[in-house]
Write a structure and sequence with these properties.
Blueprint lengths: L7 E3 L2 E3 L3 E3 L15 H12 L4 E3 L3 E2 L12 E2 L6 H12 L5 E6 L7 H4 L4 E2 L14 E2 L2 H21 L3 E6 L4 H6 L14 H19 L4 E6 L10 H13 L4 E5 L16 H7 L11 H12 L10 H10 L4 E4 L5 H9 L5 E4 L1 H5 L3 H6 L13 H5 L13
Parallel strand pairs: 3-4, 3-14, 4-7, 5-6, 5-7, 7-10, 8-9, 10-11, 11-12, 12-13, 13-14
Antiparallel strand pairs: 1-2
Helix pairs in contact: 1-2, 2-4, 4-6, 6-7, 7-10
Length: 396
Amino acid sequence: MKDAFSESKIAGIKLRNRIIRSATHEGLADDFGNPTEELIKKYEDLAKGEVGAIITGYAAVMQNGKSPLINMLMIDKDEKIPYYTELVDRVHQYNTPIFLQITHCGRQTFSRTTGMPTVAPSPIKDKLYNEDIPHELTDSEIDEIIKCFVIAIERAKKAGFDGVQLQLSHGYLLSSFLSPHMNKRNDKWGGSTENRFRIVKKIMERAREKVVDYPILAKMNGYEKSKDGIKLEEALIIARNLEKASCDAIEISCGIAEEGFVGIRGEFPFDMIAQHNHLMQKMPKILYPFIKPVLKHSFASPEPRYLYNLDSAIEIKKNIKIPVIVVGGIRKLEDAYNMIQREQCDFIAMSRPFIIEPTIVKKFKENKQQQSKCIDCNYCQIGVEKTPVKCYYGKM
């Protein structure tokens, strides 16, 4: 019988167990987007803690796709490969697979960060980043982005990563192409689900020509809060399309950034937002008592607080044969066991529990702990805008 600690494989890559560290922005790259010694040590700690596999924090495939969050990884130049090779070799010493998540932030950034205009499938302003209306990508610009994703996959392979994960969730560029909420085009890149999926399909086709059977995973939304966003019915179609496009495994998440704490449930960290968020810093503090209830109503996380992507993962797993990974509000060892034993998913992924306890998998395995110490205060999610990721445990 399968259980959370049984050995398993993704695209032939052996995992010691079925618990994965989901992609988490650490804010520990250097000024050029190369991994630093401090970041490598964080990954070594995860590997020593016996995690099944690590998915790195996101790495941008080109300069105009760079995140406004501090010290993002970049995979936009060949010169970066040796830095990543060092990272991979250090993690592999502990027999832990590591996958590089690659992305383009699209409209979820600032032109002052990238030095270029923000871009998107459609000229729709992001409500959270509040940047100028993004430039609508042309055919040739879309083709250049596809090329950059493919080259990034080639670089990841050369660096020794066990595979890559395409970031198709949370409102970043590929996510915004997939979502009818953000993609209002009426050409071959918009309209039908097939057209909105076209950019992902092209990335997969061209990547397979270059790297053949190199593992390519994807992280996608099972649903979005926006009325015209992706719903489960369309997520099933996208998942089937990913399988047809030779994707090796799919991680199920939800939500986009401007929808607030949909994809990362828990407490509404107003004090942390007031101190770190660029929009709040422009407002007079005298208005904070009036702003707080409005923001909490608009952006606070909905229910349920835990296992909130499980229903989507169950339905998607029924429709595809490749492995399904579920992330979101997984905090108890019992839940991890149940999801795997009941075959509701093939793997589980966590993010915040690893921020507070890099060795949580080892503690689970040795039965020293039954639940994560994470209190879902979400301070870490806001603090990383300006400082490297850490657990605040609900305190400033």
